[in-house]
Every structure is written in C-alpha cells, then in structure tokens.
Amino acid sequence: MKKVLILGFALFAMSSYAQHRPNDGNNRNVDVLIERSDYYEISSSQKNKIIALKKQASKDFERVGRDRNLSGYEKGRRNREISYNLQRDIDKILNDNQRYKWSNSHRDDYYKDRIDNRLERLEDEYERDIKRIEHNYSYDKNLMKCKKEIRKSQYKRDKERLKNVKDYY
Asked: What's the rounded Cα separation, in Å, for the pair 83 and 63?
C-alpha cells in the first residue's frame, strides 16, 4: 500500500510539473516598458495597444514553439521575426521622446556590466603581477617591496578611475 501511495504521489508530482507554463522570458523589454509606463510617459491607450500587441506576439511565439514541423533554426528565425515585428509595431505607437527613452534604457546596464568585467580583469591582472613580482624578485626583498608598492598604487588608481566611470552611469 505504501508503494502505491508513493507511486501515485510521484506520478501526480511529475504530471503537475509537466503542465504548460506561460513563457515569461519572451519580450522582457516590453514588460519593462509597461511596468515603467510613468517614466516613459505612456498614455493608457498606448499601454492598452502595447498589451494587445504583446498578447498577440505571445500567441505567435507559442504557435511557433509547438509546431513540430519546424527545425530549431527555423523556429529561431520565426521567433526573431515575431520579435522584430513587435518592436516595429511598438515603435509606431510610441512618440519620438518615448522611443528615445526606451531605446536607451538598457545602454547604462550594458556599460556597467562591461565596467564590472574590466574591474574583475584588472583584479586578476593585479594578483598575477604580484605573484610574478614575488617570483622574480625573491632574492631582493627591498626591491620586491618597492615593485609591489608601485603596482599596488597603479592598481588603486585604475580601480578608482573605473569606479568613477561606473558611478557616472
């Protein structure tokens, strides 16, 4: 009896996990546009039109995803086409100021991510250089200390400069 209950529970859990879930990953940009409608100064009629376009695009994405006759490449191509058409239709709804704000909204995140990557690379280079200095100048402690101080000051300057640039964005 215990095995039957465990088997039944396992089947129930697997079937509930296999249920269809909405695809939340598609058009995250559009979701941000709708959520921050005050920032973008979107009117309620524009918002309703954008929501209707997004619903239609979601249906199109689902239809393409369920079509078993399409190859992976063809599904990707059609999904990009649907996404492009959605962007184009939303651009027609927005005015110039709104379009400018929306197109530049992710630029700052892109630059911050690049600066974070450069900071990580700078730290790795610093650690590598310190190890190299310790290896190359192990015979002369004073010279090693001097070289380390020079490299440390250079590292701090570069790090501070990158942090200031990041704070700008």
From this structure: 14
Determine the Cα–Cα distance for residues 105 and 56; give it in Å rounded to an integer. Answer: 24
Q: Are 122 and 162 in contact (CB under 8 A)?
A: yes
For residues 156 and 162, give the distance between their C-alpha atoms in angstroms, rounded to a whole number. 10
SS percent in the chain: helix, strand, coil, step 5:
80, 0, 20
Over residues 34-85, the pLDDT tens digits come to: 777 777 788 888 888 888 998 899 999 999 999 899 888 899 999 999 999 9
Would you state the pLDDT for residue 143? 92
Q: Are 61 and 85 in contact (CB under 8 A)?
A: no
Q: Is the pTM of this model over 0.70?
A: no
Q: Are 54 and 86 in contact (CB under 8 A)?
A: yes
